[in-house]
Amino acid sequence: MELSDKLEILADAAKYDASCASSGAPKRGSEGKDGLGATNGMGICHSYTPDGRCVSLLKILLTNFCIYDCQYCINRRSSNVPRARFSVEEVVKLTHDFYVRNYIDGLFLSSGIIRSADYTMEQLVAVARQLREVHQFRGYIHLKTIPDADPLLIEEAGRWADRLSVNIELPTHDSVTRLAPEKNVHTIKLAMGSIRRKLDEKAEEPKAPSFAPAGQSTQMIVGADASDDHTILNTAETLYGSYKLKRVYYSAFSPIPQSPRSVPAAPPPLLREHRLYQADFLLRGYGFTASELMPASGNLALDVDPKLAWALANREHFPMDLNRADASMIARIPGIGLRNAKRLVELRRLRRIRWEDLSRLRCSLKKLAPFVVTADYKPAQGATDSSILRRHLADAPQQMNLWPELQAA
Amino acid sequence: MNPADAVLQGQALQVATFAEWREAARELLQAGIPPEAVTWGSPGDGGDLFSGAPAPAAAPHNAPVRLQQPKPAPHQPPHVPPHVPRSLLDMLQAAACYREPDRWAFLYRVIWRWQQGEHDVQSPADPDGARLQAMVKAVRREEHDMHAYIRFRERPPEAGPPRFVAWFEPRHDVLPQVAEHFVSRMGKLSWMIATPEASVLWDGATLHNCGPLMSSAADLDDSGEALWLTYYRSIFNPARVNASLLQSHIPSRFWKNLPEGALVPSMVSQAGLGARRIGQVQTVGRRSGATIPIAPEAAQPEREQPSKLDECRRCELWQSATQAVGGEGPKKARIMVVGEQPGDQEDLAGAPFVGPAGKLLDRVFEEAGLDRKSVYLTNAVKHFKWEPRGKRRLHKTPAQREIEACHYWLEKELAATKPKVIVAMGATALKSVLQQGNVTLKDKLGRPVRHGDSWVVTIYHPSYVLRVPDEAAKQEAFKVMVAGLRLAQELLERPEITEPDTAR
Q: Which residue of chain A has the CA closest to B394?
């Protein structure tokens, strides 16, 4: 099989994984050195595909042969799809050739399970080792960890890779047991725990060999089972706390050809995935807890973003005086982001904050108007209750029309 | 001529680079010349630069191609206007790359106002500040876009260096910074980036600045590009098509120079024609498939059987814990030490007392002359109970029903080990060992009691010692723990007592 045929199949097979970040690696460069590659900690998106997702890494599977039968996965063993397998050298060469043309920032390598978890993991590690040792590649490498693999292999993977990830796959134990019969949440958690322990050890001993400096992440599939956003966010919060993950990625379930009956035939609205990312960002950056964002079971509202939904449900904190409030509370005002919250606090050391400042900072004025007090502005108080306010501030009901075919499918 | 004198004579000041502007601005500031009095121009506007000054650094557009050694960074005199902070200087330097006729005049107005004490000139809430920030942002954005959207094409080796050539049409003067990025990225490979205004060439060791060497990307060809296009087509999931998001990420002016740009329209329209219903693109979907002939049981990975304890669902704590943590020590240990529950570290390691509390406990053991390996160490509750606090896990005391649910496992350990002395560390352990919900630590501290065939000695939990803020109290609590372990050892030597236990 030609290399381009393999690439077509194995890139197609990898596109269901949402994560594609190249940030967090330590600064490296190749000036005056043999080999190739640099990282600046930020990561670069080199292109975008028509689904609006960025291409920052060469994201492929080593092989889409798989002995597991995960129902949501197109590569499950019972699925009738074209199969292919790259050799280690082929992946190395592709990575190198793409990198030097500035198409990518590095490699994101995953694989179907072939023979055994250990054998598969050995192959993934071999690619990373060859890139680093033989080709002096200093770009970004993200390896998907096979949870059942020997901890020594995971340790070696962490030596070559910038980031390791273990997919939690689904938000609950029951769903994993049902939809991914060969997978096991217990071993997934153990693998995440062993990575965190190595990261902690490395943090305590700066001179130890490098171990996954960009940390670990995971992915959860949304909409393949009946779990609601309340469950999903609680699972995410548990994972963040337990394993110090850098990111939890949410991937809306994509219907697959010859879909098994155990998974839904229609995808969840993509907006749901978007709301989860917004909520996740509030967990990581703003100090919200899952129970604040989703106090009861159910899904996040689709018509308003999670921060606005929280503000509407907690009117007692508002309107908030921008000239007095805590920086962390200012960041909780809808329409004011983390950076503008910081800027406002800096500005008010110089003078009192006025309405005009908010417009100069390009805050979302419509959104924040009912929630702030400035030196020269006060919202009409008590006049509007939350439900009226919500109708006024909600996104236009465009979601239903955006993908009519999808909704009908 | 001194810039200040030139201004006083009514001449326009011509600057081409930030370094030159900075030099001129410093002299003007020192001479106290306000922005309104200065006319700034760029070379090419006519007129020469300061008489006697060296030619501008940027090669004129029509200059013959000539490889130059990179100029050493212009000497930066230490006495810049004394109190301009680094952050402002960086912003000015970035804004100087913004292509706009009045950029030098604007920068001078900013620095003049700063010098006058108007420090919010840097803030986005000030009109000039907002403009400055917008310029900086646009320049940084252009740098970023150039880092991202430059595409190198490989030239055949027989054509000689440069091996890789890229064409780009930047909106602002960011080529020098961007070249640095690729120097760091490409190692010893040779490459060139051509733009309509200028080019940079890296020969593997040195960077050369040249005038324009190409006028378009037309004569660049690279057979390796086909693989990239294959990848780009295949990594797109038509089920998620969202063309407007695409537009917002890559403005249309870049598409014509991106090899994948030509693919986008057909990909979007195919997605519209039903391909979006399923994820797989048609090219792959049309190939013949293969299922993997393997029986489900053969696919089951070999993994250690989870212990019965791991499978415990007697309460809800297992949900958020990594694993159950059982006891550790000799099966027939004569002393059993019972703690509260595993903590963050224990939860990850699967062994009791390996975290900070465990380290403290080791010191207590040492002080009491007791070998940790000779005792059976366990916890009253086997799963870590916690609540999130940012990205940390904050220990939470187990509820009575959780202690009761978990007593099942402690009971098994007690039955198997049959210790002569049980050391209960803290109230949770005491409640579980004695099976009394209302017992308090204070009642039993320092007073051994009989429980079944064993003695129960109560001491503080090591976490309590770690938590006590006051140093004296810490010492005191530590001593209580040591005394308790010594007492436990003494009790081992004591003959079996027959009289009823009065302390209970």
A: A241
